Amino acid sequence: MFRTALRQSSRLLTSSMRPAVFTGVRVLPSMSVAPQMVFGGRFYSSGGPPSKTDIEGRIVELLKGFDKITDPSKISTTSHFSNDLGLDSLDTVEVVMAIEEEFSVEIPDKEADAIQSVGQAVDYIAAQPGAV
Amino acid sequence: MNSVFAHGVGVDILHLPRLLSLLSRRPVSKLTDRILTATELAEFQRLSSIKPPNHTHALSNPAIRFLAARWTAKEAAYKASANLIPTTKEQWMGWKNFEILKGSRGEPLLTIRDGGGEKIGNGQVSISHDGDYVIAIVMVQH
Predict the structure, then answer these.
(1) Who has the most CB within 10 Å: A21, A54, A129, B62?
(2) Does Phosphoprotein count among this protein's keywords (chain A) (predicted)?
(3) What's the Cα-to-Cα distance from A96 to each of A4, A51, A63, B47, B102, rounded to whole Å?
(4) CB–CB of B51/B61 below 8 Å?
(5) Nearest CB to B17 within list A17, A89, A97
(6) Which of A4, A9, A120 to mutate against chain B (most B CBs within 10 Å)?
(7) Which residues on A lie below 8 Å from B114 (Cβ)?
(8) Is B91 on the interface with A (CB under 8 A)?
(9) Chain A residues inside the 8 Å CB shell of B24
């Protein structure tokens, strides 16, 4: 109830202020609901866990949805969230949430805080048997 | 002054619409579960039940302001604790190691605990709000 209420109120309130922030990330929920629509046949190829290349590609794609990253060409598998992409701690918390949704995993606090770069995120997800 | 006490100071500022924007995209619990301690979370829920965010302007909603102040103060506390933060993963410290609760006179007080819940430091916090911004300054002693 609170969630709905908050969502409604923030929608009303943020519609005028949102442009400053990465509105692009709002496409992510639909990506995680129907990833095959976005990523083509990759998800049909096998029932096993995603390969490291898949994980890298999906995390890079996900980061492209963040409006705060003004130059998406800077996003690579070696990018550091703050040093290379200019993300701050609040952005990083949101990136980690988006990664959790993308791969249907829950990342514990300790591990989540340790994820500060694309490479660290890829390594973490690759080690999760439950990641999809 | 006793030289065994180390001191540190840290500051952080938050633009509230950024927080609202983040909260609008996911369940609020995703963020609150990540950063608030159990006691802080209970207070957040209490404030939410008294005044749900849709009953007031979100920027002046007590629950939202509580969350914004906690985020900002924890960031400031983290910076103030630079020489306290261990470098090994086993001794890692995160959002929940820093708890900011009100003292008897309503003043915010910081308690720093290690991973095992042992108190390892405390500090003074000053928080200020103006319109869309929240700022916190923290001084720690440990």
Answers:
(1) A21
(2) yes
(3) 23, 19, 10, 27, 30
(4) yes
(5) A17
(6) A9
(7) none
(8) no
(9) 6-7, 10-11, 14
Domains, chain A: 52-127 (1.10.1200.10)
pLDDT recorded at residue A39: 46
Name residue, tokens 């404030």.
B47
Q: Where are the domains of chain B?
A: 8-141
Q: Is B71 on the interface with A (CB under 8 A)?
A: yes
The architecture CATH gives domain B8-141:
Alpha-Beta Complex (3.90)
Read off the pLDDT of each residue in B5-12 and give the average, rounded to a whole number: 85
Q: pTM for the full model? A: 0.77
A34: exposed, middle or buried (Cβ count in 10 Å: 0-12, 13-18, 19+)? exposed
| A93 reaches B (C-beta below 8 A) | yes
Residue type, B93: M
pLDDT digits (tens, 9 = 90+) for B85-116: 665 655 667 899 999 999 999 899 999 998 88
Q: Which residue of A has its CA nearest to B90?
A: A110
